[in-house]
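We give the entry.
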Amino acid sequence: MKIRLGHICFAAVLCLANSAKVSAQLVNNGVNVFIGQSALLYVDAKVVNNKGAILNKGEMIINGDWENNDASGVFHYLSSGSVMFTGRNVVFSGSSGTSFPRLVLKGSGLFLMNTDLYAKLSLDLDNAELKTGDNRFVLENNDANSLFVNNGF
């Protein structure tokens, strides 16, 4: 019972923080998170998703690494919000790949993929260097306007 109350409180805090800035490391072990259309979720460290779903209609800003260990996916299929990485030398890892609704890479240094990544609606590379290694990156939207780049790295 305590675990369920904790999950409900966590979700309620995120919903109440519709326009507030929330800063912390985020580890999801089974919570369904909703980010409203005008909401911003700021994570000043690594995000680890072991289980649970995120319905993102707003914006996530992550100043750290990303790890997904949930084979069923992270983002709800109705997600249309952006996920912006602003860290330096960001690493994408985990036992499962991630499909982001709108992926934005604004940090400095190298973005290293140790797992497969997908961008469902758009990809904004700005000047980022995305090192895929043996992994694959797929922009799932075939519209030429879904890819944004600046000058390159």
